[in-house]
Amino acid sequence: MSQPQAASQARRRSMQAEQAYLTALYERLDAARALAAETLREAEARGGGGGYAGLLERQTVVDEQARIAQRLAAVEEGLCFGRIDHRDLPGTPGGPLYVGRIGLRDAEHEVMLVDWRAPAARPFYAATPQAPAGLVRRRHLHTRGRTVVGLDDEVFDLDGLDEEQRSGLAGEAALLAALRAGRTGRMHDIVSTIQGEQDRVIRSGLHGILVVQGGPGTGKTVAALHRAAYLLYTYRSVLERRGVLVVGPNATFLRYISQVLPSLGETDVVLTTVGGLFPGVRAEARDAPEAAVVKGSLRMAGLVAAAVRERQRVPRGGLRVEAQGMELTVDEQTCRDIRDLTRDLGIRHNAARPFFVREMLGALALDQQRRFEESVREAEEDAGLTGGAVPELEDPDAPLWTEEDTEVAVETLWGDPAVQRALNALWPHLAPERLVGELLSDPGLMSAAAREAAREPEEGAVAEHEWRILLRPAGSAWTVDDVPLLDEAAELLGEEAGKRSAEQRAAERRRRERERYARGVLEISGLFEGDREGAAAALAERQADEGPAPTTAERAEADRSWAYGHVIVDEAQELSEMAWRTVMRRIPTRSLTVVGDTAQTGSAAGASSWEQMLGGYAGGRLHEERLLVNYRTPAEIMDVAADVLKEVAPDQRPPESVREGGERPRAVRIAPGTWAERLPGLVGAELRAVGAAPDGADCADGADPGGRVAVIVPDDRHAEFAALLPEAASDASPAVLDSPVAVLTCTLAKGLEFDSVLIAEPDRILAGSPQGGRDLYVAVTRATRRMTVLHERPLPGMLSGLARGD
Ligand SMILES: Nc1ncnc2c1ncn2[C@@H]1O[C@H](COP(=O)(O)OP(=O)(O)OP(=O)(O)O)[C@@H](O)[C@H]1O
């Protein structure tokens, strides 16, 4: 037999052996699913017998089994994707280790499959030829459904393989195959091809702020999502109770990444934007750059605080109010003293209000007492003059006015609408929406707040020419840049002590009772070996009287004061100082993963340096990792991007492309007045060029994706270009992910990728904002295959390296 024949036979045998193993794994998966379904059915059938304790136990089992069933269902596709063979050394695991989406054991409890997040799987990702981590070989298994369709081997130590294994070695690198696969408009998990530098990010410890800085396409987003899954696996008892928050730049982007965590079996994660961080508000629109810069500045915290102080008024000349048939007064100094005393309590505005009201009512009651005593004295004098009796003095030893009289007077005064109106005007109950809405639309309040803020120099003053930019009509819709102001206001205002907190206290009491019960049940049933306290709390919460129990994610999202277990911020360079302040409130432990690229900052209020933006929060625990390899953009396009980067961020190195695309990006000149004629044809040609997955490669999820084309245009011509392509998706909705053609601004395209990208009028993009160069850098790094620049006016110098295509 010739050598090639022998090799191909050996490869066939390898495939057959792997197929047999994969089949056994799926049989095991099916058995686990059947067991979970059976346990679930049994638990549900058990009914509510056994009283409250029985009910709790049943619910625990039902919830747990439902969760297991959900995880088992999520791992059908690509259950096992890798295998590692260790060098035969004492102390290393004998035989091959298979790596997959979950861990599985056989009937004898022996490991059949290792979860990709487990420490034992680490060499699969971390081994390199220089540092093979004890491996002789890493094998990628390519599967379709339950069938092995290919193998990729990387050999670290040829001597460590026997003759049969050597001749059975299979070819092409798994990563390149994955990158060549057609895209579907949704991000996919990369468990089978995580690279070493990404693995370091994914498996970093839970604590402190981890910043992942990397150029476009280096896998920051996808690595951050895998990190979420890794952390949930490794620190499940902490994170399942507190939850994980992922903050992305907009709703389209969230939809783009939405499948990754569920495909990894993790669903209890809150995905939101900065505009969605304040419960009840879902802001999507952005302010104009000048307003965004002012609103994003930390000085706004001082301005909002000053606006609250402005709403704590001292009436000029004192308080006068018609009540109880007389005019009661409290002099100005007393009003000031009461206001200052209330402020000195150091509690939030609404929570302090009852104290203020009570003190003011006391002062009014004092005036009432004074008037009463005066009237008695006058009556006395009159009686002395006329010799008649003063009824109040029937018992001359009794005090004229008792403490009880004061209590009654206070209550009666509070029942008087005129008094309520007067006191509400001095220290109103304020909702954050009302305070911020009034601040941004009332020049009187704004200028008074700015003056008041300037009295506290450490907060930094907002100058008149700045606050004037913020003014807008009352009732305007909330913007993303307003949300940190609302959060700031909520933080300062708090909730009024009273009915609501009584309710909260009662709920808290009920919860504690349930928790005590649950702890007992768990002790008896022995269901939880690990974090019993955590399990008891979770169980008690699930048992709340209010109908079906919400998930951690649902509860966290609805609660502004929720403290998450970990927070991931993507496209983090876009967040302003005020937005960071809002995010940091959600994570008092400062356990964060921050991913972004300061060379792509589009927001004028965004970051140019991580240390500057985050150093103050990190308490010395800011750790930066860099990703240097671009997995999205072919080298030919990245060369053009490098020219742009040289102009906009000369201190940064462009990431290195992992592959070449074979097609040079080009520039096409459009004659004036011919856009309507040319654009549809050019887009049609691109659609045809990317119509099928390249080289007959498969789409990542097996379906034919077709190709997707984006036309990236200057902000001020978005509507005009969208009108030229009526079939295209062009708004901020997630429809742009599913449409074959999308017309987008640079902001909307951020974080996304397309098979082919057409960039229209790059000089207008450059001139469009102070960050125009960075916007253009975003535009030229979106393509996975082809890029064309369309221009009517001369090309900007930084694009002069493009080939002419017309
Ligand atoms: N190890 C990998 N294996 C396969 N594909 C990968 C890998 N790493 C990244 N990719 C792919 O590369 C593309 C870019 O990744 P991602 O969007 O996470 O990059 P990014 O750094 O966030 O980019 P940007 O800064 O432009 O938002 C995605 O399609 C992603 O799936």
From TrEMBL:
GO molecular function, one term: hydrolase activity
Gene Ontology BP annotations: recombinational repair
UniProt xrefs under InterPro entries: DNA_helicase_UvrD/REP, P-loop_NTPase, UvrD-like_ATP-bd, UvrD-like_helicase_C
Residues annotated as binding ATP: 214-221
TM annotation in the entry: none
GO cellular component: cytosol
Top-level taxon: Bacteria
Residue ranges of every copy of the UvrD-like helicase ATP-binding domain listed in the record: 193-634
Keywords: ATP-binding, Helicase, Hydrolase, Nucleotide-binding
PANTHER family associated with the record: DNA 3'-5' HELICASE, UVRD / RECB / PCRA DNA HELICASE FAMILY MEMBER
Protein name: DNA helicase IV
Organism per entry: Nocardiopsis composta
Classification lineage: Bacteria, Bacillati, Actinomycetota, Actinomycetes, Streptosporangiales
